[in-house]
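Hi V.,

Quick status before I head out on leave. The structure for the redesign project is tokenized and pasted below; the design run finished overnight.
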């Protein structure tokens, strides 16, 4: 109130009798709608473009990449594929010498364990499914790591540090024994 009993208002500054909380709510709503509109426009602009990231990734990894004649491999005995060409060649050489698919798979897996030990190897585990063409039966091999022989349900209760240090902190590798078992059968 002013000195003469009149209220002092600034209609040009406030514009209305909304509370500051209402103005903040409307401001947030306005900026949210503006952001959604901007995202929509950008999505339409880049989403329909042939050079959009989504299309590049799809073409590179999920799409049908052009295959050149020099990359086509045909075989009546079998083919071997690994993430390292040297290992693929080792497996293929086993097939060429009269070995069967499991012989080639074991040789290839052992090679990958040497050239890429972080992805595969005798210190880890694996799975293998072997299908017999003559019997139409499949045999699955679980070569995953197992708990140490000294493992128990409450082995970390009195020694929490054993979770990350020492022989109880890791599994027993199973890949080598599993590859041998698959090769034997």
């Amino acid at each position: 109130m002013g000195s003469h009993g009149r209220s002092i208002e600034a209609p040009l500054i406030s514009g209305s009798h909304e509370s500051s909380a209402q103005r903040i709510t409307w401001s947030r709503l306005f900026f949210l709608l503006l952001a959604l509109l901007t995202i929509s426009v950008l999505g339409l602009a880049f989403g329909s473009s042939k050079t959009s990231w989504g299309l590049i990734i799809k073409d590179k990894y999920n799409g049908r990449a052009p295959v050149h004649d020099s990359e086509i491999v045909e075989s009546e005995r079998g083919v071997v594929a690994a993430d390292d060409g040297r290992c693929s060649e080792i497996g293929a050489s086993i097939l060429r010498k009269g070995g069967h698919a499991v012989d080639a798979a074991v040789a290839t897996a052992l090679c990958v364990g040497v050239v890429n030990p972080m992805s595969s190897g005798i210190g880890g585990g694996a799975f293998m499914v072997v299908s017999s063409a003559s019997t139409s039966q499949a045999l699955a091999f679980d070569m995953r790591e197992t708990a140490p022989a000294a493992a128990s349900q409450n082995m970390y209760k009195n020694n929490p540090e054993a979770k990350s240090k020492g022989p109880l902190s890791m599994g027993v590798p199973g890949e080598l024994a599993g590859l041998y078992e698959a090769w034997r059968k």
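Above is the designed sequence. The CA atoms of residues 102 and 184 lie 9 Å apart.

G. will cover questions while I'm gone.

Best,
W.
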